[in-house]
Amino acid sequence: QVQLVESGGGLVQPGGSLRLSCVASGSIFSIYAMGWYRQAPGKQRVLVASITGGGRTIYADSVKGRFTISRDNAKNTVTLQMNSLKPEDTAVYYCNADAKLVAATRGDYWGQGTQVTVSS
Predict the structure, then answer these.
(1) Burial of 39 (0-12, 13-18, 19+ CB in 10 A)
(2) Contact between residue 38 and residue 112 where contact means Cβ atoms under 8 Å apart
(3) Does the CA dihedral 103-106-108-114 come out positive or negative?
(4) 52 forms bridges with which residues in the sheet?
(5) CA distances from 27 to 81, 102, 110 (A)
(6) Distance (Å, whole) CA 72 – CA 37
(7) What is the pLDDT of residues 47-93, one digit of tens each?
(8) CB 96 within 8 A of CB 90
(9) Which of 2, 21, 54, 67 has the lowest CB atom count within 10 Å?
């Protein structure tokens, strides 16, 4: 089983910044990609950004130019630097890993979520 531990959420004013971090642990064979999703109240969970082991990145149009995703493959960590935050960024942010464990099949694993609130 993969455990994803998220940190860095909180309350920030519009225009401010937050940095989210996620550390994956367990009997991991390989992590093919990691990413961040978010879910606002009453909304579907949507992709914010993802990154493969090779460094290929995908960003939602709404965060391009403001958010940056990075990954440390050796440490099985992924971070999301969020700048110029807007109220519409308010959501629960979830870390995701596309991973293969030593004794399990490949699948998607999720963190517990961390709240990001952007408000004045």
Answers:
(1) middle
(2) no
(3) positive
(4) 33
(5) 27, 6, 16
(6) 18
(7) 999 999 889 999 999 999 999 999 998 889 999 999 999 999 999 99
(8) no
(9) 54
